[in-house]
Amino acid sequence: MIKWTTSTMLRCLSCKEEYGSDNAGTCKDCYEEASETEEELKREIEDLKAKIAFLRFWSPLEHHNFLQLGSPSFTDVVLVASDEHPANPVSFPAHKAVLTCRSPVFKAMLETDMEERLSGIIKISDISNDTLRCFVDYLYTAEACLDEQMARDLLVLAEKYEVKYLKAHCEKFLVSKLNWDNLVTNFGLAQQHNAKILLDASLSMITDNMSKFTKTPEYAHLVEKDPRLVVEIFEAYLSKAVNTAAKKD
Amino acid sequence: MIKWTTSTMLRCLSCKEEYGSDNAGTCKDCYEEASETEEELKREIEDLKAKIAFLRFWSPLEHHNFLQLGSPSFTDVVLVASDEHPANPVSFPAHKAVLTCRSPVFKAMLETDMEERLSGIIKISDISNDTLRCFVDYLYTAEACLDEQMARDLLVLAEKYEVKYLKAHCEKFLVSKLNWDNLVTNFGLAQQHNAKILLDASLSMITDNMSKFTKTPEYAHLVEKDPRLVVEIFEAYLSKAVNTAAKKD
């Protein structure tokens, strides 16, 4: 049997408080090793951030100011949101080299004799000027100032142009904002655009609260509008219930 | 007084060994917090690496294969090592947009009506084809397969074209390889090209072994060839000696 008295308490090197046997963490060697590892990881993060700063093109604002000021920017293609009101056309100049490097779809478009290569104009349907600006900026900088609607719009665009990294970025953002109000919308979006990260997270949130979910107006609406999706939800719920039961046995 | 017997030893959660009061590291809470921090840092590193993969252009080999195969690569400028033997001219195609983004010197060259802008040819003197290939690759990928000579050549080029990130990369590589044989060469290079990281490291290695250093043939050669540099070394040595003495008082 171990008997502890106050005189046998140890002092934690990190928080400086005393602790006893029940609260034993690490020995000194392991503590020092862990501190070193943490320092190394932080240095690696600084190095990676510096590399990103080097590889990134102009920041969004700089980029657009730069182009507006008429400085030579060596762009050789423009992107246009084709459904925007014709009274308000905005062309977003870009570089073929950047577009082909970021998206296999742009690559196919610009490396073969498709209309876009010959005209130097890429028309993008079903999006606003704001979304297109944000999309182009992301291709250059790997950064976007997202809200939920922008994340959904960019997810659709990223799926269409196969920009996997942006798609994952939007999915992770939407997962971080997932709540009872946007759950069905995000689940439907994820389903429609093969967004696996968002799909798993939203489906898990639904099946964890199945009986609450089936009492919502969104559920009633979904049964009406898209019963197949409801079937998929129930299948996932069943599968989870079976797994849970199997674990208990 | 604390008395320890084997029965009062604690078990380290990390290495699973027992430890006593002298070897106390952290309490359990701090251990768990540190583990979580480490996991978070590792996740951040993964995220940053994915961002780098997205922002990077073609890898060196792909890049050159790509260009050799005659696929459209939308390049609009070539770089040439101007001193290479004329029987062996190699042009390295590149994009003005990438060069201006990576180097203020290329930017000034290509955005004003200098010869290079008009001709679309940038001649680079005093380097080999191999060094130029490595330099261009680095501007696209932020990666280089370095040996000591290549690191020195690229450091000079990075200084000339103000590619700070590459310069720091070469300096860090040379610091990691610093030894008694290459010390004077690297110190001289650092001195000549304002390479502060390499300068500090090599000067520190010299002044730590001053009496050994003054007995080497390199020292004798340096006194002959560049006595000002020797004066700088002695000044640094004196300054260190004064500081050490002040700390002791």
Description:
The first copy, chain A, is mostly helical and 249 residues long. The first copy, chain A, has 2 domains: 46-174, 2-Layer Sandwich (Potassium Channel Kv1.1, Chain A); 178-249, Serine Threonine Protein Phosphatase 5, Tetratricopeptide repeat (Alpha Horseshoe), CATH 1.25.40. Helix content of chain A is 62%, strand content 8%. Chain A has 13 helices and 6 strands. Chain A has helices at 28-55, 60-68, 96-102, 104-111, 115-119, 129-141, 148-160, 164-176, 183-192, 196-208, 210-213, 217-225, 227-248; strands at 10-11, 18-19, 24-27, 77-81, 91-94, 121-124. The first copy, chain A, has a 3-stranded mixed sheet with strand order 5-4-6. The radius of gyration of chain A is 26 Å and the shape is flat. The first copy, chain A, starts with 9 loop residues before the first strand and ends with a helix. The model of chain A is unreliable at 1-6 (pLDDT under 50). At the A-B interface, strand 1, strand 3, helix 1 and helix 3 of A face strand 1, strand 3, helix 1 and helix 3 of B. Strand 3 of chain A pairs antiparallel with strand 3 (24-27) of chain B, so a sheet runs across the interface.
Note the main attributes of this structure:
homodimer, 249 residues, mainly alpha, Potassium Channel Kv1.1, Chain A, Serine Threonine Protein Phosphatase 5, Tetratricopeptide repeat, 2 domains, 13 helices, 6 strands, 62% helix, disordered N terminus
